[in-house]
Write a structure and sequence with these properties.
The protein has about 230 residues and is of the alpha+beta class. About 50% of the residues lie in helices and about 15% in strands. The chain has two domains: about 20-95 and about 210-230; about 95-195, Roll (Pdz3 Domain), CATH 2.30.42.10. Helix 1 crosses helix 2 (about 40-50), helix 1 (about 5-30) crosses helix 3 (about 55-65) and helix 4 (about 70-90) packs antiparallel against helix 7 (about 200-230).
């Protein structure tokens, strides 16, 4: 074989090796959804949420080969699928250059204005938006107490403070979120998303409408492509 012919063959072989390795890793995460260890199940779901939409056919093949699924695998698989699909759809929205967690935040009412006897808020309760970074790495009900970035810890008392700090950072920038989860203090590190354009009420409503539309589309795709693999044959 001519030496110049060897290079394309090596490239193709390397690409195949990487694809096989990726499939093997996804297979492991999928199997871990049925682990008796809660931490292992949660971590596996978060890893699966990191798949790209183009990898959903591969995930479907893995699910088809494993059917029938264990009961413990179905709900986290469905949640991971929804996240991947919705995230892909929402990436089409116009974005700003500011950072974004993906939380539904209350307005200024969480500030201790107008009531001199009211104590300042001491954190922000997490309520996640589907398809964004916070949905993958945080849990509803977490209390955000602070953010560390570049070695500097910034305490968070209110949603206003949280929004100001995060929006001043750049998309893709890694941040460490200090949270209270139940009785435990937990730190979670992940990259920020780019904030969708939402400068007024109409643009904010468009974000929520786009999210709802993406969830509806995801539900239809799940029922068509994945649910028949999971339900027992009649």
């Amino acid at each position: 074989m001519h030496p110049l012919m060897v290079i394309p063959c090596l490239i193709a072989s390397l690409a195949m090796t990487r694809a096989e390795a990726r499939r093997g890793q996804v297979q492991i995460w999928f199997e871990q959804l049925g682990s008796p260890d809660q931490h292992a199940r949660t971590q596996a779901k978060r890893e699966l949420m990191g798949l790209h939409a183009e990898e959903l056919p591969m995930l479907r093949q893995i699910v088809a080969a494993a059917a029938p699924l264990r009961a413990a695998q179905i709900d986290p698989l469905h949640e991971a699928f929804d996240y991947i699909y919705v995230r892909h759809q929402l990436q089409k929205l116009p974005r700003t250059t500011g950072g974004f967690l993906g939380l539904t935040l209350p307005g200024a009412f969480d500030e201790p204005f107008g009531n001199p006897n009211r104590e300042p808020a001491s954190g922000v309760e997490v309520s996640r938006l589907p398809g964004f970074a916070a949905y993958r790495f945080l849990e509803d009900g977490d209390i955000i107490r602070g953010i560390s970035q570049a070695g500097e810890l910034k305490p968070i008392r209110t949603s206003t403070e949280l929004k100001q700090i995060v929006s001043a950072l750049s998309p893709g920038e890694d941040v460490t979120i200090h949270i209270q989860r139940g009785a435990a203090d937990v730190t979670v590190r992940f990259p920020l998303d780019a904030a969708p354009v939402a400068n007024d009420v109409n643009e904010s409503l468009n974000l929520f409408a786009s999210t709802q539309n993406a969830q509806n589309e995801a539900a239809g795709f799940w029922e068509e492509a994945f649910l028949p693999l999971i339900l027992p044959a009649p």
